[in-house]
Amino acid sequence: MTWSEMRPLLSQASWDTLYMVGWSTVIAVVVGLPLGVLLVLTDRGGLLRNLLANKVIGQVVNVARSMPFIILMVALMSFTRWVTGTTIGREAAIVPLAIGAIPFYARLVEMSVREVDGGLVEAVQSMGGSTWKTVRSVLVPEALPSLISGATTTVIALIGYSAMAGTVGAGGLGDIAIRYGYQRFESGIMWITVAILAVVISLLQFAGDFAARSLHRRGAGSGRLLLFRPLGRPRTVPAAAGPAGVPAPAEAPAVTDAVHKG
Amino acid sequence: MPGTPAHSTATETHVITTSGLTKVYHPHGSRGGAPGTRTPQEIVALDGVDLHVREGEVYGVIGQSGAGKSSLIRCVNLLERPTSGTVTVDGRDLTALAGRGARAGRELRRARSRIGMVFQHFNLLSSRTVQANVELPLEILGLSGKERSRKALELLDLVGLGDRAKAYPAQLSGGQKQRVGIARALAGDPKVLLSDEATSALDPDTTRSILRLLRDLNQQLGLTVLLITHEMDVVKSVCDSAALMERGRIVESGTVSELLATPGSRLAGALFPVGGRATGEDRTVVDVTFHGDAATRPVISELARTYNIDISILGAAMDTVAGRQVGRMRIELPGRYEDNVVPVGFLREQGLGVDVVGVADDAPAAGAQTSPLVKEGAK
């Protein structure tokens, strides 16, 4: 198989993968985020404490997560037909992909939101903030770096799932690798697909990490920021701004020197 | 500015009142059993607390950890629902507003927005700038964007952080963070400020500056401050009144001078610790407590002149506030107690509190039974 034969195949497959993964990620985040937040809010000690609802949502999430994707795809066929009108093609693959990813992301959201300091929730409560205000101003913004990391993990997992979407004729890079690489022994195209996937996943991971880290580092005077400090405008001396008026450390040695000389 | 503050803004109106406040925790979330019966696992955090905080005063609740201070302050704005009893803040019965559900209704939330609260660990949002943190309660109150930023900058100026509005909390020192916390607590123009161990995570210098700020706000804005702490120094430096909590109960309470006037008050002993022992056999050791209106004259030198006796001062914890002496002093008079009945009577006549330290009781400290608090206060 020559490169000119491969190129249209690969570009179509890449586009298909992007399309399926992109849409299912959007759906997973839009549905998984509130679900994950609800899991925290309804739990013991949560603002909307409702153990029954918590158990029900938790159980649904568990069942959906324990389902192998290929089975989920088959099991959801009638639902898929109801939603998209068909059970084959890219659109049909998006439905099971999204449904598989929703509970996955919901659990990641739950973990991230649980990490948010309870004191912050208490602070907003003490100001008279509503539950919705607490979610919007505290839980989501404070968990944001971790929510972004979770979304990155979800996208990458979805790229893995999407390899199976070929079974419903949805195409994609994984499908190319299976049909050409495995079934026709075209190892060249298989390695190229693998390489493309590796590059895509690395790029996604890098972008996700970068976004999460730059949000996380907001204002944190970490050592890494120090590296860039000489390039920016000079920062004010913290001691001068401090109310405690921490004395300059240079004073102490000067005093001891004087004592020694005296 | 230790001792009884001079320009107390306190009035006689009670702005925070709790009556019969009880909080029982059910571990493992169990709520079984008929009311009134208590299973052994239950923890009684508050056991019938009656608290009366007057308008414009700084009221300190002191106690060791586990005494129920935290539960008490959280019950005042109903962050924790009391098991029984009522909480009235600024004339409104919050326990009635709360309703029965676990969620805070609109009424309770509105009442809360008029009660400021500062926290030990500041509880600032790391995702927001200092200014945006102060704007958060203003968002809840529904102010417009322009109003919010005007008010937030004004509050930051008030706490001395006008130049740090654009910084993130992670760039601030502990003291600065607490100043932001205070600015945020003041955003709703509260009448009452609750301070939950606000200085416990700070070093002594910063603690002092934060306490000074609280005192200034109390005087400038007529703000009532209810603070809980485990540090006697905090009570000593800012409080008009204090209460001692132990095992969910208030065991002593009153204004600082009332406490001093109470014989055997543990809080007074801890606030003004005196030590020193008799220098010889034939000596009388007397603890003199200065409080109230009587303590305006140089009583000790009058005593010496009137009875022509030599007086040694063994230990003293005194302050002069607005020309009045406040505190305690341990003095030694020559001769046995029987010889000193008249001078001791003279001291009593001056309106001073007089405790003769027993001959048998020549222990170094004022009272061994108050040891943890005394140690705290003596630092």
TrEMBL record, chain A:
Lipid bilayer topology: Multi-pass membrane protein
Cellular component terms (Gene Ontology): plasma membrane
Residue spans crossing the bilayer: 20-42, 63-82, 88-106, 143-168, 188-208
Short name of one Pfam family: BPD_transp_1
Matches recorded under Gene3D superfamilies: MetI-like
Domain ABC transmembrane type-1, chain residue ranges per copy: 14-212
Lineage top rank: taxon: Bacteria
Sequence segments annotated as region (Disordered): 239-262
One BP term from GO: D-methionine transmembrane transport
Places the protein is found: Cell membrane
Keyword Transport recorded: yes
Main localization category: membrane
Keyword vocabulary terms for this entry: Cell membrane, Membrane, Transmembrane, Transmembrane helix, Transport
Similarity-based family: Belongs to the binding-protein-dependent transport system permease family. CysTW subfamily.
Protein name stated in the entry: Binding-protein-dependent transporter transmembrane subunit
The species this protein was found in: Streptomyces griseoaurantiacus M045
From TrEMBL, chain B:
ABC transporter domain mapped to chain residues: 16-272
Taxonomic lineage: Bacteria, Bacillati, Actinomycetota, Actinomycetes, Kitasatosporales
PROSITE patterns per the UniProt record, alphabetical: ABC_TRANSPORTER_1, ABC_TRANSPORTER_2
Single GO MF annotation: ATP hydrolysis activity
GO BP term, pick one: amino acid transport
UniProt key word Transmembrane helix: no
Classification via Gene3D superfamilies: 3.30.70.260, P-loop containing nucleotide triphosphate hydrolases (3.40.50.300)
InterPro entries per the UniProt record, alphabetical: AAA+_ATPase, ABC_transporter-like_ATP-bd, ABC_transporter-like_CS, ACT-like_dom_sf, MetN_ABC, MetN_ABC_transporter-like, NIL_domain, P-loop_NTPase
Stated name of the protein: D-methionine transport system ATP-binding protein
Keywords: Amino-acid transport, ATP-binding, Cell membrane, Membrane, Nucleotide-binding, Translocase, Transport
PANTHER family given in the database record: AMINO ACID IMPORT ATP-BINDING PROTEIN (PTHR43166), METHIONINE IMPORT ATP-BINDING PROTEIN METN (PTHR43166:SF30)
